[in-house]
C-alpha cells in the first residue's frame, strides 16, 4: 500500500542547493562511505569534506589528504544501522539529517540527496510547517498536518519521483534539528493518508498558512480543477494568526506606477474571485496609460521575500485597495498615520503619508503630490486546502484531526494505517 513507511529520496535544495563546499560528520550510528567502487567503514565521528579546486571536485576523508574526484563520480553515505549525519557549509548552514546521503558533482556544485525513512522525514516537516509549540492545546492540528504532509509526500513521490526540501517547490523539511513535540503527531497517525472517497487513491493535499477566512479553489490558483480543494468559508481562520490575520501595506502612487511601468497611479480596480481574493488588478495613471496584472503578479511585486512577517507587509491576494488623496490637510489628519521604529526600539508617529515610498522601502526626504494607496488584507499563502492556523484553532476548540481534515478537504476519507 502507498501509505506504508519506506525510504524516500529528498533533494536538499532549500539550504544546500548551491553548495560548493560541504563537511559531513557521522553524528550517530554506523555508515559505509562508498566512493565509486570503493567501500569504507564510516563509524560515529567520521568526517567527509567535499569541495572543488581548479574546476574539479575534490574530497577529503577523516582530515586526510585532499583527493581529486571524477566529475561523474557519485559518493554515498549508506547507513548500516539507524543514525544521523551533520552537514555544514562555510556559509554557516548546520543541519542534521537522519538516514543516508548521496552526493554528486553537478553544474559546479554538489547535489545532495537525503535517503530517509518516510516517517522520519515527516518528523522534520510537521514542526517547521506548523510549530512544536502548537502541541500544547493544538496536538490535533499537528496530527492533521502530519496526515496532509504524508499524503503530499505519497502523491509527489509516485513513480519514483524525488521530492525536495523546499517550501517553494514541495514542503519544508529541516531534518532532525527541528524534531520535538510534533513527532508525537506523526507517530499517532503513522501511515495514514487522505484518499478520494470513491477511488481510494491519494489526493493532492494542499495547504497554506492562513486562509483569511475563506479557502480558495485550486483552479483559481493553478488553473486545474480539483474536487478535493474547493473554495468555502473558513470561520476557524478568523481572528487568529496575529500579523497574518490582518495586514496593511502602503505604497506611494509614483512607486506603485513605476513598479509596473506606469506613471503615478490615479485609479485601481480589482477583479475578484467568489472567495474575495483578487483575480486581477487594473491600474490607470495620469497619462492615459493602463495596465492589468494578475493578483499573484501584483502580490509578488511587494511580497517580503526573505524578511520577517509583520503587519506592515503584503502577504497575499486577499485584499482591498483604497486611495488616500494627495490633500496635505487629509494627509496630516489621516487616521492611517504609520509608525516607524527608532533606534532605541521606541516608536514615534511617522512622517506625513506624502513622504512614504512604501511600507517596505521607507520614506523619502521630500513629499510627493500624487497621494498613496492603502492595501488592507488578511491571510497568508495561496489559501487552497487546509489553513494551518484554522486547523490549530479547530484543535483548540476541541475538534479532532479527522474532523479538521474532512472540513478542509472535500470528498475524501482517511485511509487506515497499514501494517
UniProtKB/TrEMBL annotation:
Q: Which Pfam families match?
A: SpoIID
Entry-linked InterPro entries: SpoIID/LytB (IPR013486), SpoIID/LytB_N (IPR013693)
The Sporulation stage II protein D amidase enhancer LytB N-terminal domain covers which part of the protein?
107-195
One GO term (biological process): sporulation resulting in formation of a cellular spore
Q: What is this protein called?
A: Stage II sporulation protein D
Q: Which organism is it from?
A: Desulfosporosinus metallidurans
Q: What is the lineage of its organism?
A: Bacteria, Bacillati, Bacillota, Clostridia, Eubacteriales
Amino acid at each position: 500500500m502507498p501509505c506504508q513507511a519506506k525510504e524516500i529520496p529528498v533533494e536538499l535544495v532549500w539550504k544546500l542547493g548551491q553548495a560548493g563546499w560541504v563537511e559531513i560528520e557521522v553524528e550517530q550510528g554506523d555508515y559505509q562511505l562508498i566512493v565509486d567502487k570503493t567501500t569504507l567503514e564510516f563509524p560515529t565521528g567520521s568526517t567527509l569534506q567535499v569541495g572543488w579546486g581548479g574546476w574539479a571536485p575534490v574530497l577529503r576523508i577523516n582530515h586526510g589528504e585532499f583527493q581529486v574526484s571524477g566529475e561523474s563520480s557519485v559518493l554515498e553515505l549508506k547507513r548500516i544501522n539507524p543514525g544521523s549525519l551533520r552537514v555544514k557549509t562555510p556559509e554557516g548552514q548546520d543541519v542534521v539529517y537522519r538516514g543516508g546521503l548521496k552526493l554528486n558533482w553537478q553544474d559546479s556544485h554538489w547535489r545532495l540527496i537525503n535517503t530517509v525513512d518516510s516517517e522520519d522525514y515527516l518528523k522534520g516537516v510537521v514542526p517547521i510547517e506548523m510549530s512544536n509549540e502548537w502541541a500544547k492545546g493544538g496536538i490535533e492540528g499537528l496530527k492533521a498536518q502530519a496526515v496532509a504532509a504524508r499524503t503530499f509526500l505519497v502523491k509527489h513521490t509516485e513513480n519514483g519521483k524525488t521530492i525536495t526540501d523546499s517550501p517553494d517547490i514541495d514542503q519544508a523539511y529541516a531534518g532532525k534539528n527541528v524534531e520535538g513535540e510534533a513527532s508525537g503527531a506523526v507517530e499517532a497517525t503513522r501511515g495514514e493518508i487522505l484518499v478520494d472517497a470513491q477511488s481510494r487513491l491519494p489526493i493532492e493535499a494542499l495547504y497554506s498558512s492562513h486562509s483569511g477566512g475563506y479557502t480558495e479553489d485550486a483552479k483559481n490558483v493553478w488553473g486545474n480543477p480539483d474536487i478535493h480543494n474547493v473554495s468555502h468559508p473558513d470561520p476557524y481562520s478568523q481572528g487568529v494568526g496575529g500579523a497574518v490575520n490582518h495586514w496593511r501595506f502602503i505604497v506611494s502612487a509614483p512607486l506603485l506606477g513605476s513598479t509596473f511601468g506606469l506613471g503615478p497611479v490615479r485609479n485601481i480596480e480589482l477583479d475578484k474571485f467568489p472567495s474575495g481574493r483578487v483575480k486581477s488588478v487594473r491600474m490607470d495613471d495620469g497619462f492615459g496609460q493602463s495596465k492589468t496584472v494578475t493578483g499573484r503578479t501584483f502580490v509578488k511585486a511587494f511580497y517580503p521575500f526573505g524578511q520577517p512577517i509583520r503587519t506592515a507587509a503584503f502577504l497575499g491576494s486577499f485584499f482591498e485597495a483604497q486611495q488616500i488623496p494627495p490633500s496635505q490637510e487629509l494627509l496630516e489628519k489621516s487616521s492611517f498615520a504609520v509608525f516607524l521604529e527608532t533606534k532605541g526600539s521606541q516608536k514615534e508617529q511617522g512622517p506625513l503619508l506624502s513622504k512614504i515610498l512604501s511600507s517596505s522601502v521607507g520614506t523619502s526626504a521630500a513629499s510627493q503630490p500624487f497621494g498613496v494607496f492603502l492595501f488592507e488584507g488578511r491571510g497568508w499563502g495561496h489559501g487552497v486546502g487546509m489553513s494551518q492556523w484554522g486547523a490549530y484553532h479547530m484543535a483548540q476548540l476541541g475538534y479532532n484531526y479527522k474532523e479538521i481534515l474532512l472540513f478542509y478537504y472535500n470528498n475524501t476519507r482517511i485511509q487506515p494505517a497499514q501494517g
